[in-house]
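User: Quick sanity check before I run a bigger batch. Here is a single chain. Can you write out its predicted 3D structure?
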Amino acid sequence: MNRTAPEATGLDPAVLRDQLFEPWNRKDLQTLHLLALQGFSKLSEPLEALLTILESCPGKQKSRSHTLGYHILMEFQTWMKDHSEVTLSSLSERQALELQRRALSLLTDTQPSFVESLIYIYHLSSLDPAILRLHIVKLQALNCYKEAAVLCIKFKLQKELNMEEICVPLILQDKLSLAESYVTGHNHLEQRLVTLLDSWCHPSFSVEEISKRFPRLSLSKHCMSQIQPKMLIKHIFRLVEKFSIEQGLCPNALHKRRLNSLRFLMYKRFVEKSMTEDNWSDHVQYVVADDLELQINLVEMLVKYCGLQKASQWSLRYNIPRYRLPCGVWETQQSLPPDLQQICLSDSAQTEEWTPSQFHCQKFYQVPLTKDKVHFVDTAEALQRCQHIVLKEGGIVGVDMEWQPTFGCISTQQVALIQLAVFDQVFLLDLCANGFCQHPDTISFIRSLFSERNVLKLGYGMTGDLKSLLATWHQFLEEPLKMEGVLDLLSIHQKIQSSKVNRTQNGPKEVMVGEDSAEKGLSLLVQQVIGKPLDKTEQMSNWEKRPLRISQIRYAVADAYCLLDVYSVLSSNPASFGLPADLRSISSSQSEKSGDKKQKEKQAKQKKQALGKEEFQGAQRVSPPRSDTEKDLLCGKKPSEDSPPLPPQQLRVVCDNMLQGLGRYLRCLGVDVVMLENTDDHRVAAKLAQAEGRVILTCGQPFQSLRSQVGEGRCLSLDCSEKARDQAVQVLKHFNVQPTPSDIFSRCQACNSDQYVAVPREDMVRMLKQKGFLQDQDNSDHTQQRSHQQEEEKLGDILTSSVTPELPRYALQCRWASLSGLDPDTLTFPGGAPIQLHTVPPTLLPRIPLFYVCTRCGKVFWEGSHFGRVLSMFQEVLHITDEDSESAAALVKAGQQN
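Assistant: Done. Predicted structure follows.
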């Protein structure tokens, strides 16, 4: 079939564009396809005509594949395959350059196929780099930073341009991933990106200085949160690993990470008391290293946590200059006798007994093996003996690994010890022994172990173990390990927990009270199955230091051997744990559900954040006298099932800093809640509980130490894996607290106060004007003046016509103060708190007749749809009377629609 020859004069590009617009408007892409192929053949200069059409196409939209211009370009590229004569090389050099410049000007789109098609058709990669650079600069001037970066990558211009000029705007717009793509493959740029981010972690860094360089950039709160040191440090260490960069290039991030690690170690040792002195000392020396500022931080923390003597000993150890010492340390140094000037650590590796104390045996899981059944494997000969026993066909092996904690300074650490347990003995593969780790026989044994399908390998959370294996033996990256006959008991544990929840979903979920709640992970599984938890004291040990202490060896042996005992119990009676007969069938089915679970968790998190962002309105309470039930509650007694429900005001709690979400939910339901700050240690909770008669709400390890300080029943521990909303429901049910709609928002969400003043709209307008929050933005702009005047007149009409607003029906449970107590000049309350007028949007005034202001902190609240949301979220625990039902239902519906 002969192709249609182009007409002498050729088809007008504008006519073809209009012809194509009709089927495009009807979404008839088949007709558009046929008309385009016919029309392109009628153009006298197809390459020039295409640019004319694209330049005049309506509805240009960035990054969209459903525009007319995009479809025309794709059709043209298809048409070109059958018209090889249509090429840029057939034109003169001057004509080709002109078309290339025009095509380049269209590259403000980030739709990959659109960009790539234009580059291909017009050979844009052959353009002079100076011309390409000029186009990039123009895009930047138009705030098209993303498009500029994409083109830089396409044209491989990274070495031609200033990395910061390209990457800084991307980072400030939360497009760090694109900045990563820009530098990837260019070692010097990768290093510069890391050092740039690290410089932003320096205490003197100011984002305002960066913003001045890019004044047209508008930074959202989300973007600002992404360049805070905490987030930056995570990205820096991720990039250090990704690009294999020396950590010395990011001193600020490394210092902050080590400082946080030091704080964590102080908490573990002196607050939680879950770390031995030997462990703590080993880790402190690793974290502090030769950093003088960290050494000084250590001494300052020791003064705070345990007194001057220990601080003085460590200051002598690091020879800290006198002028940098905290008050009293130097004087204490001078008074120390010679035998106390050195830090003496116990030599427990030689003196400790294998059999632990009777108390330890009663409290923790014990391995039923004597010391002679534990074998260190650190030579080829010992490995052969181990291999002969461990790889027996049909055998079962408990597998665990230990490595040196690095507190996030290195993301994946090399394995120091591998524990392999069979029913009558345990083998400890010492990978720190000279030459043993990289010996060919060792590597071969590891391959054989994990690939042997007839040997069942039991582990718990083996993903982390496998990552460390890859960091230890890079050979497994080149030739991956074959994983056969491996059962991860973490999947089994998740199934047990899920079955437990399903069995109780029709009734109130259990609140974890007592020792159970302090356990997690493998220790919790061992307790649930065998009856006693693991002793995790040595978990965070220096596993690279030799010789290992007896307590370390006991811990390492127990971590592997307990897997055998757990599997044996579960296999003998799986139904009692809600498990199928074939335990190996769980792993695959469990992982299939993980995607749905993550999606639900994401939705729940978004819902929680939406509630948190709302402005909570205040309400009021008249405090009743304490009843006998309340007195029992303050003594830690759980109300009996037949006792009457408690009003939420009678439940007084203190939430530790891991349960701030729970605290916010309880407070919005009227519970008297004090929340610890992120910087507070858990001892503060105990002091508050003792001083104010509060119940401590906590989770995880702190439960043990807090309970010992406040007594049995005065400390309630919750499951950390539960959502804050579910935790709140559990607490209310546990204490038989039944809130009503009148209790919602009866406390200030910011400071927990229950006293407010009611501020009518006209008074709020007056105060806003007094403090300059209602005034002309630009006196020179007469149009804005007229608009502002019209708004004031409109507002004045509303004020004069409005009647005195009534208090909301849910404002019956808090105390009202008189507005006369407010200082008329400073607009501060007697306690010194000013009204936070800057938080009141002027656009809110026409529709809000009454504001509520907390007299303690000055926060301003008003009615909104969030009240209905809370009703919806907590319907199962709210006590709603017939009188409340109709209005509550309406509010719930409104809350769900907003």
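The mean pLDDT is 81.

User: Great, the batch can go ahead then.
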